[in-house]
Structures are given as C-alpha cells and as structure tokens.
Amino acid sequence: MLKIACPWCGEREEMEFSYGGQAHIAYPKDPHALSDEQWAQFVFMRDNPKGAFLERWVHSHGCRRWFNVARHTVTHEISAVYKPGEPPPAGSR
Amino acid sequence: MGSNARIAGAGRIDRMLPLDFTFNGRRLQGYAGDTLASALLANGIHLVARSFKYHRPRGILSAGNEEPNAVVQLEQGPYTEPNLRATEIELYGGLSASSVNCFPSLEFDFGAINGLASSILVAGFYNKTFMWPRSFWKKVYEPILRAAAGLGVAPDAPDPDTYDRMHWHCDVLIVGAGPAGLSAALQAGRQGVRTVLVEEAHELGGSLLSRPAEIDGLTGAAWAARAAEELDALPNVLVLNRTSVFGYYDHNYLMAVERRTDHLGPGRTPGVARKRLWHFRAKRVILATGAHERPIVFGNNDLPGIVLANAAGTYATRYGVSLGERGVAFVNNDHGFALAVETHAAAGNVPTIVDARDAVGDALLRRASQAGIQVLRGSVITFAHGGKRVESVDVRPVKGTGMARIACDHVLVSGGLSPAVHLYSQAPGKLRYDAQLACFLPDQCIQAVEVAGALNARFLVGSALADGTSAAQRTLSALGHPAPATPPVQAGDELHIQPLWSVQSLLGETLPGKHFVDYQNDVSERDILLASREGFRSVEHAKRYTTTGMATDQGKTSNVVGLAILAGSLGKSIPEVGTTTFRPPFTPVTFGALAGRDRGTLSDPVRMTPMHAWHATNGAVFEDVGQWKRPWYFPHAGEDMHAAVARETKALRTTAGVMDATTLGKIDIQGPDAAEFLNRVYTNAWTKLAVGSCRYGVMCKPDGMVMDDGVTARLSEHHFLMTTTTGNAARVLDWLEEWLQTEWPDLKVYCTSVTEQWATTAVVGPNARKILEALAPDMDFSNAAFPFMTFREGVVAGLEARVFRISFNGELSYEINVPAWHGLALWTAVIEAGQPHGLTPYGTETMHVARAEKGYIIIGQETDGTVTPHDVGLEWAVSKQKDFIGKRSFARADTSRPDRKQLVGLLPKDKSFVAAEGSHLVSGPGRAAFDPARGSPSIGHITSSYHSPNLESAFALALITNGRALHGQTVHCVHAGGLQPMQVVDPVFFDKEGKRRDGID
Predict the structure, then answer these.
(1) Are A31 and A39 in contact (CB under 8 A)?
(2) Chain B residues with a Cβ under 8 Å from any Cβ in chain A
(3) Is the complex ipTM more than 0.90?
(4) Rounded CA gap, B652 and B771, in Å?
C-alpha cells in the first residue's frame, strides 16, 4: 500500500485515495475539429510505461480534491506531488 | 513409551508444571515451555501425520515455522483450527490435537494404497489422469479427490472469538529477535528512535535459546533475557512476541498477526481479542529473519525419525528431548556438523556423522573425536530402511565402493542453510546466488531496508550480533541520528559447505526408494526430472506442474532443493534458473484475523430509509440495492411474490400506489455557472429550463456510452437538484467533481450529496391527485397550476415539502420530498390519506414492471457501458446544437453504423413464458444464419423480463442488432435447450399515447 502525500492534507494511506489514470490528458478544446483517429487516441489510448509516470489521484475519503503524482511504476517511488494546473516539477518525468 | 525421552535436567521447560493433553485421542503429558511437537517427541511419538498424496507415514522434520509434515487440526467445535504446525503450537493444559490426511487412523491408513499406485500419481497427474472418460468426472473422480484433498477441516460453527486491528507508525521495524535482531533493537532503542521489535516465538532470543553460546560472560539465553528486560524498560520500544510478520508491501508497509491467547487454550480468556492484525508503516526496516536448514534428498528420506540437524539440536537443548537411542548425522557443512556434536553433547545419542565432504576443518574434527563421535568423511546416506520409523541407513563412500548398513532410530540431516529471504523478496528485493555458501542472499532492494544476521550470511552468533549492531547504525544514520560508525562486519565463509542436493544425482545412478523434495505436497526428485524431460524449463512452470513449494508451508525446506535439481537436469546453473516468486503470506493467516471486527452486521454498512420500520412492520420483503435495503414487494397473507406484484401493479394502474423512493441519489448543485455545467455534462440543453421545472437528462462518458440518467429540477436561477440512479449516486458525484476540478475549474459550481437529507414518497396512479389534495389543502394540484415536469413547494401533511410531478411509470405521479427526519411522519400520513382511494404500497419489483411496460430504461440493466442514447431510443434527449461530454463519439464509425444493437420490446407467443434476463436471442427457423445443427449466432439479449397483469402477458425488453427494423418479426429466445418464439414490438407496451400521466378523470 502506497503512502501518498495529498498536496492539501499531507501524507495519507493509499486506501483514502482513488486512482485517475494518466495525467495531463486534457479534454480537447474542439472535439469536432479532430479526426476520428485523433479522437479515438484521446478517448481510448493511454501510456503504460515501465518507469516514470505522471498520473492523477483524488483524495476520495479526505478532502475529495484531485491532484497529480509523479510515480515510478516499477519501484512505486513517488518523486513529486502537485496540484492540478501546475506543471510537473522538473526532473519528475 | 512414556516420557523417558526427556534428558534429565536439560531444557527450558518447567518440570514443576506438567500439562495434560491429547493427540488423536490419546492422553499424554508434557511441560510448560513445550511445543506440541516437543511434547509428542518427549512421549516417543515420531509418527504424527500422513502425507498428502501417498499417505506415507511422516514425522516431525523441523522445530519451527518451516515444518512441512507435522500439520495438525487443533481443538474441536467452533474453536477447531486446521493447518497448524505442531512445531509452533505452545502446549497448554487440556490441548487436544489430531492428525490430518488419515483414514481410518494414523497407524492404519487406507490411503496408503496411493503409494502402490504412485506410478500414476506423478507430476501433472491431475491433468493427465482424470481426463477420461468424461462422464467419470462428476460421479467418480471429483468426490474421491474432494474427500482426499485438503489439510484438515474448517469449523462448521461461527468463530466465537474476537479479533482486533492495530495501526502503528515507527522509525525502525525489526523483524526477528534472534542475536542479530536483538542487538539491532538494543542499538536503535538506546538512541531513542521509535522502534518495534517483532518476534514470532513467545520468548526473545531465537537460536540463542537452542544453541550453546556465551555473550558478555552470560549464556546466550541469559543474555537474551537481559536484552529483553532492557528493551522492555525503554519507552520508545515496542516489543511484540508471538507475532508473525507475514507480508512486506510497498512504502515499508508490513503486516503481522499477534497471537494473544492461543497459548492459553480456547475460550479461556473471555473479553480478550484472540489475535491482532498489525499494520505497520516504518520509516526503515531491519530484517533479521534467520535461515532455514535444508534437507538432503536420498532414498526414503521422509521416514519418521529423519529430522533436520537444527531440529535435533533444538529438541535436545531447548526442550530436553532426546530423539532416540542412536542417531546418525548426515551433513555437508559446518553448521550441521556442529549441531550434531552439540546434540551428542546434550543427549549422548549421535555416535556417527556421515559427512559428504572430504575436507572437514580440524577444529570440528577435534571436537567430534573428543566427544567420541565417529566421522565418515566423503560418504553419503543412500537409503533409509524402516516402516513407520527409520530403522537403519545405507552409507557408502562417494568415491569407491563399500556399502555399510548402520542401525539407527533417527537421522539428523543438514544440506545447508537457506536464508529466510521471503519478506525481503516480497519487498520486493532482488536476490543473488552465493555459490560458495550455496544459498540465495539479499542483494538490492528498492525499499528502505537493511538485513542482518543469518539472513545476511552471518551464521555464527558473534558475527550475527555485530551485524545487527551494524545494520542498526546504518539505519540510525539514515534517520539522521549521528552515531559513531561501526565497521561493517566482513562476511567470512561461516558454512564451509560442499553443495549436495540429491544423493542420486551426486552418484549419477538411480537409487531405490522415494526421494522427496517437497514433503507437504509429496513431490519427489523423479517428478522434477519428469517435468524437466517434458519441457518445463522455467522454474515457475516446473513449480506449478509438479506443485513443488505450493503447499501451505510454501516450500520453505524444498524450494531451493527443487530448483537446484531442476537446474542440474537442465544443465544450467542455479542462478540461471532462479527462484520462484515469494508472495505473502509468509505463514498462513486465519480469515478471522484478517476480518477483525468486520463481521456479521459490521461487515458492510446497511443503509435504511427513514420509513424502514414501517416497511418491516408491514411485511415487506427487502431487496439489497447497493447497501440500501429497499422493499421488494409487500405480500399479503398467503401471497407469493407473483401474486403480490400482480396486485400491486394492478393497483398502481387502477387506483393508486405508494413507493419509498428515498434511495434515489440526490445531488444539490449550486452556483452561477450551474446551468452551464449541466449543459456540458448532460446530452440535452439546460440553460433555458424555467425555475420550477424539471427535465429528464442523460449523461455519457467521453466514449459516448450512457453512464447515468435522472430528472433534475431547477429550484432557483443558480440552484438545481439532480437525481441519479440509486446505485450510481456516489459515482455521479465523483464524476461531477472530477470535471469541475480538472477540466472546468473556472466554473463556479458546488455539488453536495443530499441523498440522505431528503426522504421521498412517490404517490402514483389515477387517484394520486385526490390523495395529494387531501394531504395539502393549500396547494393547487390541477394540471394547469401544477403541470407535468414541474415542482412546487408547500405544506403537505403539515410538513414543509417539495413536490415533484415526475413519473417513472406513465401514471399521474407526485414525488413528495421532506427532510429525512419527517420521512416516516409523511409516509404514515400518506398511507392514512390514501385509505379511501385504494392506495397500495408497492416495492421495487412493481416499480420495475411498471417502468418496463412504458419502455423506460434502467441504467445497468438496459445499458452496460456499450450502449449509446440512440441505441435505447433516447435520441430525443440528445442536443444537436450544443456540445457535451462524449458528443464527438456519436460521429465515430462504430457509433453511427446502422446495425448496432437497439432497444426493442418482445412479446412471447406463449404468454406465460417469462424469459430469463440475459437470455440470448437468435433469428429463428427459416431465417438466414439459423442452423439448428451448428448453432446460430446471437443477435441480441433480453435485458428486462416480467409478467404484466396489465398486458395479461409476459413481456420483455431486449437489445437486438438492428432491432428497430425487425418490428413485427419473430425472433427466438434460447431457453432450456429449446427455442421460444417472441415477436419484436415497440418498447412502449402500455399507454403509447402517454395520456395517463395527467390522470384519467
């Protein structure tokens, strides 16, 4: 079980959080301007790297806020935690 | 035989405290301080179990958690517990244990016939033997296998004990209180850091309690007792004995079970939780889990009386038990050699050591000769003679000839040491193979962990103590506690081992007898060689095919031996073959400990509406909807479900019905951008909805598939009340908050769950208006003043209420919302006011029938995440102008193709045929693609199916490929091996014109 530092609440057990998949996948500004392939890319395709990964979590059983986590998918080392809208810290990717 | 196996004056047992116990019904006596295993051996009992597959006689192999054979069933009735190792059970007065795997008795076992049939019980026999004839499986093979399988029986009564859960944060968690763990704990504890020391036995000391040692002028045991006292006095140190760490998880999260009362006997400590499940979060961890001794594989190496050298030493020194009159030791390393000498010193019964090595250190040889022990160097045991106990062994030199048969009643075996890397490996830590020491050792780990003692190849007491101190120093400095650095303990060769896994493969010839590798799963060397010949080259595959290491002992004594034999047969090195994956739990954990207090009514919250008591009093049969208890139907005396639902459904369409709709999800949405927000999440338009009005909405995921639906009301300009499907309430709130926070943080909107703040009573049917008028004389319920899809606030039955004119059944319907604490008062007032108008309470089943008669979908029943609004006939609720989540997906090739599955109604030709929901539909005889011989492709499935008293027929909703084009045609429902013809119709079965929603005055 991971120990995750919520940017608002501090370190908490993983069981308080829910996972939200890859971070920085914004809903397209004008979906209708996209080709079918581009839209399918947005809807269905996500990275699944072995290594550094930027992902979304939500503190479901705490402050209920979303945030981003830089996690290594093999070691589970969390190198950074940052709020929505903030850029990933340098070197976390 | 009596207790004459005790060595006078020896052992850490209390001879003043004799304890009576029974084994297989036989009354026996041991002493306080015994384990069940040591007490049995003290009574001369070596045969304690029958093996799993061949039902061979088995004895006690070890003295610890690695025991594969001596697995017993403890106690009876609700307290009975299977799968316990006799080597770990602390003896208490009145203990009652029995062997497993034996019928009719341990001494005489029918299953031993399996031994005669062992040629068919080889590796993979499950896959090979029980294949044919097919008809034998259900009636012959399965009952026999079920009777033969398993280690003991589960209790058939509820567990009378309680179990607790603990959460603990610490700076340092030390696992194992042998010499290394104790010295580490002292070092860390003295520095004031928050330290936890966990030990599975009841006494701290580990090997110090069972082997002669001198530390600081004290015996090992006295030093351990002094260390325990010092740790006990330190306020920053928590010592947990009788506690087994069984799992090492991410971010230094470890779990352990503490056994608090098992050593006192069942039912004797009322009010005390039997076990505690500990959850540790440690900044740093020190593993000092020791090592397990390995057996050597030779002919009939599983006979009772053949034990690990370490076990013989422990029983002699710690428990004062002699394993027999005359023992032979068979070793290939210094550790085992020294134990044989120590055992002989304590019990005087090991006159012969067979050592596979040619070269043995002078110091050891001198000790042996001083003790009068004969040492046969360069020799091996090839075969053990005996039935229920070893009687003699065949010994011969590795090189040259000359077989000698040595009479004995027990054998001490040591094939080397396997450091207990299990927790380290779980962490996960990488292992390396040390060819000189012939064992796997911790190498690198991604977690903040140190290893010390035998786990780190410091097998001698002195170096283990120093290694523990050194590991603690490294840990302290990582925690920021500057302390004088101690020089790291240089690893020397403390084993002088000459690797020997199997005598057969060493000699390069086939020897008589069975050569066991995994005792608990009865896997022999022959099985591993067969797997290798049959092409199982990966250690993971060979493990599963042979089941090596897959029993409840997880192969603690067999894994390394098994993979070494596999490597040998594949012509590979041991590190090339590698280990299998170590997984939790290290030792078995009971479900009771894992469940803790989350049992019975506490296992899952039960949600009840404020009207629940009325439903229960009035005979409701309840249905679980998520965590909610909802009335399913209200049977009258003598009614079954069918009759009750028929009556309720009829009442709803002819007079009036009343339903508790409280469980429907309710989300309060406020803010200046609330309307714009709804516009984006719902497929239809919301900005122009008038205050006081309601609208049905559908929300989709980005893939365009229906996610939820419900009616939302505009309470004021910036204030909406959204309703959701009962089971989806939390998910929809999560969804709304996610979009607000992550995509549209600029929108000023707040969402609040108010499901439990409001109680909802739905009054439905032609007489609904009359009932509402009686309840709320100050409100105008006329169609003109209070039209369909609007809401009004007013006083109903003396209570402030919001009344919504919405309908999930096509009838005139009012849903009355009052604050939850008034819910029951309103409900009883409605029931009373409805009496003259035939008002009938109804449950979810009638709700389902009525909505299906109107073709209204239920999320999760008509939809399954692959259904668009168009598929279920909701295109009228999809805006062509504005954008919303998922709209782009409707233009994808897949969502716009004409042959998608579409919602249709079905009427069976046989009006009494109520199809099973989920039944597949085929096109039917006379249609293209229908082939009764080869089967036909499914063209869809039934999503809802009921009998309707209003239609006087069964009916169904279904999703069928291009279904709308099939109206009027016949399809066939696959049912009980046959086909039932059904006609495809419009999904609206009742009141197609929708006239009834305004009432039928």
Answers:
(1) yes
(2) 249-251, 253, 281, 446, 702-703, 734, 737-738, 741-743, 745, 883, 885, 887-889, 891-893
(3) yes
(4) 13
